[in-house]
Every structure is written in C-alpha cells, then in structure tokens.
Design a protein that fits this description.
The protein is mostly helical and 341 residues long. It has a domain of 217 residues. The protein has a two-stranded antiparallel sheet with strand order 1-2. The radius of gyration is 20 Å and the shape is globular. The structure holds zinc ion (ZN) (2 copies). This is Acyl-CoA desaturase. Keywords: Fatty acid metabolism, Iron, Lipid metabolism, Membrane, Oxidoreductase, Transmembrane, Transmembrane helix.
Length: 341
Amino acid sequence: MTSGPASPPADTRPAEPAALKPAALTEPAAPAPAEPARQGDLSDHERHIAPHVMVYLFAFVPFVALIAAVPLAWGWGLTWLDVGLTAGFYVLTMLGVTVGFHRYFTHGAFRAARGLRIALGVAGSMAVQGPIRHWVADHRRHHAFADKEGDPHSPWAFGTSPAALVRGFWHAHMGWIFDRSLTNQKRFTPDLIEDPDMRAVHRWFTPLTVISLGAPPLIGGLVTWSWWGALTAFFWASLVRVGLSHHVAWSTNSICHLVGERPWGSRDRSTNVWLLAIPSMGESWHNLHHADPTSARHGVGRGQIDISARTIWLFEKLGWATNVKWPTARRLDRLAARAAA
Ligand SMILES: [Zn+2]
Ligand SMILES: [Zn+2]
C-alpha cells in the first residue's frame, strides 16, 4: 500500500474499500515512510488461549507430517490419487492466498465480480493461514513498516550480526505467528469489516478449515472405497499439503527479505528469489512487489514465471476481473532508475 492503511488515523480514512480504489499505477508508489509503531496498530485484546493453542497445533502438526513425508514416500501409501489431490488442493488454496488474500484483498491489484471475490475469500481461508481479516491486517502492517519497527515479521528485527539474523530468520519465518498480540483490524481492514460477504468468510474460518482438511480424505475414501485410501489422502493432501504451503508462504517473509537480488527501488530489504517462483506462484519476486505493491504482476522480467499474474490475466479474459493494474514499461523504468540511484 502506498499511502499504507497505517498512515492516516482510522477515522479520516475514506470508507471506500481498498480493492475499489482507482488505479494507483499512475501514482508514486514509494513505501510508507518509516515511522515508529503506534499503540493503535495493535488490537487492545490478545488472542484467546483456545485459538492460540490451535496456532501451535496448525503450525507444528503439518510441519511434522512434512518431515515424515520424505521417508514415508518410499514403500508407503502414496498413490496417483494422493498426488493429484495434493497438487489440486495446493494450487487452489495457494492461489486463494496469492491472488485473493494478497494481490486482491490486501493491495487491490484488480476489481473482482462478487462471485470471484467470495470464491477468493473462501479459497484463501482454506490455506489455513488464519482468518481473512487477520491475514490482510498483518500484511498491510508489514508493508506500512517493512523492515522497520512495527513490521510484524522482519528478519532484521534483532540486528545484523550472524546470531541476530538466525534469530531474525526464525522470527520472520514462523516465530512471529506465536505472538499473541493481534493487528488492529479497525485500523488496517475497515473495508473488510464493512463488507457483509467478507464478514461471513471471516466468521467461517473454522468450518472452512474443517472442509480444507476433510475434503481430501472424503474424496480419497470414496474413490478407493477404503479407509486406507481416506487415511493416505488425509496424510498427503491435507497435512503435507498444508505444511508445504505454510513454509512456502512463510519463506516470502523470511528468505525474500534476507537473501536474493534487489533490482528494484524499494526502501526495505525485500528481494527476488527465483528458486521459489513456481511453488510460491510468483510471490517470490518480492522486491518488485515492495517497489510497486499494487501491481498485479510481480515477476515482470523476462522468464520470471508468475502463475498468480497469469491467473489474474485469465480472470480478466473471463470478465470476472476488471481494472487490473498491470505494470507499464514507463513505470518499470522509473522503479529501475530509483534502484540505481
Ligand atoms: Zn504485499
Ligand atoms: Zn515483504
């Protein structure tokens, strides 16, 4: 967000939803200036104990499954059906986060028809990365304070010594999610609070998590007509899939602010990491994203694969997405010049 939601006080901000704001590609897109985190950036209540226990559960159980997956893959139930279900649910929920939660809901990179808007909210929720308002509020706060005090997940939070960076990597990758303080949703997501559809999607986070974890074993069990088929589908397409997608998504916060190339002018330490381009659906072209947050395409260079941008392009062709903020050559030249300066 250029004039990040954190900049003006909540009561003076326009009531217009972020996603409906006019194209910002013509405006300067410098990140919000560094300012100290203010009290109002955080909610005045902490996460309750039951959801906090669930955070630990959902962070570690799929993680353990992911580690167990490699030895188990040899000689233990992994069928083509499991592979298909895992890939299908991975792509669906990952795009829900990258196209939906991130490029659309957080940054307003395009306008979506109501059906697409709801579908993106539902698919993003099924990635089990938290309810929509928590995700969007945390991410808008990340852009408002990127790599400065107030950023919920900067790997540079503890200093630049090797020991501080090890600690910072852990914090940015997954440590930050165990912090019980919550981002102030009234300040950062007034547009989602006002929208009845998104209030429902937010409320439905728990049932959507159950569906996300329950659908693969249901399909696996019915197709193979066996409990074993249900169990292997649950292991691969529910647990391993969620674990893998969590770590790929979290890598954008940790690796893509730590190592990699910085060809674009952004005032933080965001980087481009080509190795993660395909699993992250284009999100690892993260330096361009911080330089130009509302752009619908993050991988703008030759050969920079960006599956999320291609998906938005498809939605545009189908008429479901309009006002897509595609990068222009003039604008990219300006960003490159800023990086060289
Ligand atoms: Zn972003
Ligand atoms: Zn970032």
